[in-house]
Amino acid sequence: MPFKEKTIDQLIRETWLSISKYYNHVASQYGGSMSIGFTLLNIDPHEGTPSTTLPLKMGMKMTSLSRTLKRMEELGLIYKEKNPKDARSVIIKLTDLGSEMRHKAKETVLVFNDYITKHLGDERITELRESLETINRICQQNQVKHHKS
């Protein structure tokens, strides 16, 4: 029997694609992308971030992040310095342009969140956060048990 309603994962995926499309549209006005904005937001604006910890902060693998970092370096948003604490890694630091773009990315995220909160209200936002955190925790702990009906 076909589903009459969309599944939870389908709703989450469609919503994330819509959010991603929105962020990419805004970022394209500044010559960037959602991926670049997300990366900028995860780089410490004052101290920089070690290349070895950045993917962990972002929930990614370094191989997935390498292309974005290369593009960001080409655009003059970041530069790399030797890590004095670990010779195997570098510190990713923001240029002045990178700091400016980070500020715009942060502003975009805050505007989006404020807009959604105004439309849903604080109570529904709290419920949404709690629900998504629970789903995430269940998935991370691999608690979903597959069984046949």
What does this entry show, briefly?
The protein is mainly alpha-helical. The protein has helices spanning 8-28, 34-41, 54-58, 62-74, 96-120, 122-140, and strands at residues 49-50, 78-82, 90-94.
How are the secondary structure elements laid out?
Blueprint (H helix, E strand, L loop, with lengths): L7 H21 L5 H8 L7 E2 L3 H5 L3 H13 L3 E5 L7 E5 L1 H25 L1 H19 L9
Antiparallel strand pairs: 1-3, 2-3
Question: What report would you give on this structure?
Answer:
By secondary structure, the chain is mostly helical. It has a single domain, classed as Orthogonal Bundle (Arc Repressor Mutant, subunit A). Helices cover 61% and strands 8% of the residues. It is built from 6 helices and 3 strands. It has a 3-stranded antiparallel β-sheet with strand order 1-3-2. The mean pLDDT is 92.
Give the rounded overall mean pLDDT.
Answer: 92
CATH class: Mainly Alpha
Tell me the β content: 5-15%
What structural category characterises the helix and strand content? mainly alpha
**What would CATH call the homologous superfamily?**
Winged helix-like DNA-binding domain superfamily/Winged helix DNA-binding domain
Strand count, sense and barrel status of the largest sheet are: 3 strands, antiparallel
SSE pattern, N- to C-terminal:
HHEHHEEHH
Radius of gyration: 19 Å
- Please give the number of β-strands: 3
State the shape. globular
Integer tally of domains: 1
- Number of helical stretches of at least 4 residues: 6
Q: Write the CATH architecture name.
A: Orthogonal Bundle
The CATH topology name reads Arc Repressor Mutant, subunit A
Work out the helicity level: 55-70%
| Strand order within the widest beta sheet | 1-3-2
